[in-house]
Each structure stands twice: as structure tokens, then as C-alpha cells.
Inverse folding.
């Protein structure tokens, strides 16, 4: 059996940077807080926790004093930075440069627009990146996911549309077309497709990769919605696709009928985990 690890799978550069920052800090100090899961992958979080990383929620963050906290790739609203300043917290800036740029663009647009228009975010209201983005505009953005969320927008005023970086591009275009339709003239819409290429290009690539092998072993976190979506694309293209979260789960798979097995994962899947899964399959079948 041939076992191939997809070299385009694994962490995007934003997540990679945040993890490298945490490792560098944990090399110098034995403990570091991280506000929220650094990545939606239990195995990677577990590895970093063993090095001293402590994952905390917002409530715990807002009771900390004199500590060092990593801001993960999703970014944070200004209130997080204000609290840190007042309470002598040292922040390690792990916000992905793509997200940081988007935050700055939204802030600038909001300052220009004031209350003369609507800022709309195509995204999930509870997603940490969206919480960080909305914070840039004093939490005044309308957060929408589909047509039914558009009803309380004031269509007599211009609309500026941004997207959470990890949303689906086809759905973005449907929403954009609907906004154009509801406005008096389409010129009243300023739309920015701010979906990240690292995410958007992953699905078409995985479909191609899935065609080149007899079976797919997709490695992803149980809590990662992106993993589920990408796995779905693999499964649609190659029905012999299996989802696993760990090496031990991959050991339950029966793969003996396949000659060529591809191992791949999401943007939150560590490379080392895919390699370990591949090694385990090789040990059993080659
Ligand atoms: S998916 Fe894109 S925007 Fe999000 S963390 Fe990765 S590189 Fe940054």
C-alpha cells in the first residue's frame, strides 16, 4: 500500500504563527494563558497544554492580573486590549495579519461612515473573529448569514459588506446579490470579499486530491466545523473517506482493500498528527 500525506493540508500561516509564538514564550516561561482555544484541534491543544499553555475563557480573562496572555489568530475586540492595559497584562499578539488588516479596514470605514450607512458582516455572531471585528465598529455591525437576516437593515442608507475570513464564497455572492437587489441602486453597496484564500482554496484542492487516491483518511478536530466541511468535500468526491481525530481512531479503520491511501486534514490539523496517522497506517499495511 502507498500512503500519501497531502502537503497542502495542515495549519494555515495565521495559526502556524500563533502556535510558534506560544512555543517561543513557553520556552522562556513555564506558563502562558491563551484566550480561547488556540486551534480547534484537541491533540494540538493537549500538546501545548503539556508545555504549560493554559486555555482560559473570557470570564477568566477578565479576572486576571499581572499575567501573560496570547491573543490567538482570530483576533480580539478593543475591550480586551483596554482591560489588559488597565490590569498589567502582557499580551502576545497572535492575531493573524489577514484578520488584523481586516479589523483596521473596518475601523477606518466605520470612522468615515459614522451613522450615514450600515456596516454588515457576513459571518457567525458567536465566532471569535466576528466578535473581534464587531468590536472595531463599536459593536454596531449587522451580522448576517443569509437573506432572512437582512430584514432589519436600513436600505435607505449605503451598505458596506465585509466577510468573516472563513465563510463560504458562494454564499457570500448570494448575499451580495440580495443586498444589491434590496438597495435603491446597486451603487449604494460597497462589498469587500474578505474571505481568506488559505481557507477558500482548500476545498477545491482537497476535491482534486481525493480523486487521486483509493481512500482518504481525513484528520480533524471533533470541535472543528471547518474540518467537518472539508471532510464532506472529500467524502462527496471519494466515498471511501474516513474521519479520524487521533492515531488511535485511525487504528480502527479497515483499509486492507486499498492500494493508495491519502491522508489530509483541515487548516487546524497539525502536520505532525497527519504524519503520525500515516506512519501508523504504513506500519499496519506495508
Ligand atoms: S484562515 Fe486565513 S485569516 Fe484565518 S488564521 Fe488562517 S491565514 Fe489567517
Amino acid at each position: 500500500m502507498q500512503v500519501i500525506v497531502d502537503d497542502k493540508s495542515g495549519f494555515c500561516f495565521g495559526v502556524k504563527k500563533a502556535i510558534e509564538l506560544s512555543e517561543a514564550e513557553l520556552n522562556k516561561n513555564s506558563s502562558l494563558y491563551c484566550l480561547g482555544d488556540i486551534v480547534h484541534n484537541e491533540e494540538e491543544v493537549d500538546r501545548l497544554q503539556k508545555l504549560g499553555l493554559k486555555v482560559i475563557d473570557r470570564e477568566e480573562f477578565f479576572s486576571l492580573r499581572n499575567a501573560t496572555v496570547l491573543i490567538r489568530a482570530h483576533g480580539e475586540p478593543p475591550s480586551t486590549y483596554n482591560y489588559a492595559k488597565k490590569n498589567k497584562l502582557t499580551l502576545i499578539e497572535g492575531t493573524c495579519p489577514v484578520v488584523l488588516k481586516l479589523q483596521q479596514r473596518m475601523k477606518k470605514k466605520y470612522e468615515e461612515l459614522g451613522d450615514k450607512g450600515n456596516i454588515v458582516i457576513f459571518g457567525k455572531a458567536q465566532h471569535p473573529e466576528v466578535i473581534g471585528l464587531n468590536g472595531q465598529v463599536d459593536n454596531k455591525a449587522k451580522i448576517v448569514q443569509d437573506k432572512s437576516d437582512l430584514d432589519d437593515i436600513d436600505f435607505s442608507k449605503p451598505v458596506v459588506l465585509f466577510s468573516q475570513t472563513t465563510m463560504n464564497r458562494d454564499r457570500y455572492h448570494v448575499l451580495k446579490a440580495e443586498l444589491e437587489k434590496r438597495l435603491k441602486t446597486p451603487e449604494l453597496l460597497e462589498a469587500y470579499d474578505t474571505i481568506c484564500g488559505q481557507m477558500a482554496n482548500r476545498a477545491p484542492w482537497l476535491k482534486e486530491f481525493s480523486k487521486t487516491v483509493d481512500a482518504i483518511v481525513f484528520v480533524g478536530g471533533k470541535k472543528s466545523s471547518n474540518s467537518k466541511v472539508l471532510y464532506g468535500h472529500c467524502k462527496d468526491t471519494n466515498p471511501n473517506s474516513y474521519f479520524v481525530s487521533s492515531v488511535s481512531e485511525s487504528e480502527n479503520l479497515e483499509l486492507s482493500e486499498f492500494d493508495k491511501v491519502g491522508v489530509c486534514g483541515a487548516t487546524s490539523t497539525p502536520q505532525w498528527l497527519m504524519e503520525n496517522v500515516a506512519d501508523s497506517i504504513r506500519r499496519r499495511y506495508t
User: Anything to note?
Assistant: The first strand starts at residue 2 and ends at 5. The pocket of iron/sulfur cluster is lined by residues 12-15, 73, 96, 98-99, 165-166, 196, 198-199, 267 (CB under 6 Å). The mean pLDDT is 95.
